[in-house]
Design a protein that fits this description.
Shape: elongated
Strand content: 5-15%
Helix content: 55-70%
Oligomer: single chain
Radius of gyration: 21 Å
Number of strands: 3
Distance between the termini: 25 Å
Strand order of the largest sheet: 1-3-2
Structural class: mainly alpha
Length: 168
Amino acid sequence: MREATEPTERERDPRAVSKFVEGFAAQLVEAGMQRMPARVFAALLSSDSGALTSAELGERLQVSPAAVSGAVRYLAQQHMVSREREPGSRRERYRVHSDQWYEALTNREAIIKRWESALREGVTSLGADTPAGRRLAETLAFFEFIDEEIAAMMERWRIHREKRFGHG
């Protein structure tokens, strides 16, 4: 049973929801995300189910199906949303998961590993004792450090999440 003070999704002020979606999307854009994927992600995040169809997203954001499609493609590539078929239908729903930040960060590990490999090659090619080689070696050391810290931090998060929310 829900508390009387908590409005359902249908009872919420659509202007307040829109203000949150646009405000959070602006923060994501400022952090480097493209505008339309940021808006779609914020809309999914703000829905009670965490899942919406392309038509529902288009209606909420007042954008075309093509804009939604491109945004969802980008978000899926970043492992921030997944596609799922509606049972008995050809329509797809796009879902944001409660662990989307974990997934997005974890998937960055592969990118960091590729950068580390390229930087190692650069240090070898330029010479470890040259100014450029030393700069690359320091950059490599930074990414190695970040890689280790992210792995440790993700393990701490799994433990914290289990304690706080009861699932892993």
